[in-house]
Specification:
With about 300 residues, the protein is an all-alpha fold. The protein is about 70% helix and about 0% strand.
Length: about 300
């Protein structure tokens, strides 16, 4: 396994891990950048600790309580390894990290929960169901990230359960959550991997009256999956374009702008909307943005 670390840093990290010098490891590893360097430190940590359960728990416990969030992040990969040994204990610490005050720690933890959902679907699913209705925006966002991750496996029997996990999140308007629901978990995730089933639910959700759900439905089409199903998306967006609430119609305009840049023929439809008082505002907004982009 190739590690993207300088020989000096790798040597010092390996020495700290071998001596169970958690503080020494933290001082060295906390400054490593997101991506290959920090990933390399994580892999080295697992490699040296091997599968020795007592040492894994020692490191997971200490790192998860470290004052430096750039050190706390490393606890998540160890806890993934420990899940099968004691899922209740590992899950409790990982839940705290998923709700951590620092975004970087949450990012790592949310990714790990996605991996756990893929590997232990039946065990993890009920816990994420409770998080879908949890007051914490951090835990709700974790559900969205995990759904997006698990959807990539394209297991047909998971499609409906994954949609069930997202449904309680639809009406929320918290930016940290919704940006990872409509355009990401649904659009880039489920609509890409399970297009027919997801479209069925998007059409159903579009008839709901709350702003949050309608925002997520519209923004689901401002995505890779939405681009592949742009004609079906245009039908739903046509209906939502009549909503006079700024929160909704602006999301419709954003989705249409995204699609029109990839499918210029949509402009012909928008031009016909200019004579329709219910949809003229959306059409005018999108056409002006398209025109400005050309200048």
């Amino acid at each position: 396994m190739k590690l993207y670390l300088s020989s000096d840093i790798e040597h010092n990290l390996r020495e700290a891990i071998s001596q169970d010098n958690v503080d020494g490891f933290s001082r060295l590893a906390c400054s490593l950048k997101w991506g290959k360097p920090s990933w390399s430190a994580s892999q080295l940590l697992l490699q040296v600790l091997d599968d020795k359960e007592d040492r894994l728990w020692l490191w997971a416990t200490k790192l998860s309580c470290d004052e430096n969030p750039f050190s706390r992040r490393y606890a998540t990969v160890i806890l993934f390894r420990l899940w099968e040994k004691d899922k209740n204990r590992a899950g409790k610490i990982l839940a705290n990290l998923a709700d951590d005050e620092h975004w970087l720690v949450r990012e790592y933890a949310h990714g790990i929960w996605g991996e756990l959902l893929k590997k232990h679907f039946k065990q993890v699913f009920p816990l994420l169901q409770t998080w879908s209705s949890n007051p914490s925006a951090n835990l709700k966002r974790c559900v969205a990230i995990a759904v997006r991750s698990a959807g990539n496996l394209r297991k047909e029997e998971w499609a409906e359960p994954l949609i069930q996990l997202l449904e309680p999140l639809l009406s929320g308007k918290n930016a940290y959550v919704r940006k990872n629901v409509g355009p990401y978990a649904i659009g880039d995730g489920l609509l890409r991997c399970y297009p027919d089933i997801t479209l069925k639910h998007l059409r159903r959700w579009a008839y709901r009256k709350d702003e949050g759900t309608r925002w997520n439905v519209a923004m689901a089409f401002a995505s890779y999956g939405g681009n592949r199903k742009w004609q079906e998306g245009l039908e739903t967006l046509t209906m939502l374009a009549t909503d006079k609430r700024r929160y909704v119609w602006r999301s419709v305009a954003s989705a249409l702008l995204y699609l029109a840049r990839r499918h210029p023929e949509i402009q012909n439809t928008l031009k016909t909307w200019m004579t329709n008082p219910e949809r003229a505002k959306v059409a005018d907004t999108v056409l002006k943005c398209l025109k400005a982009k050309k200048v």
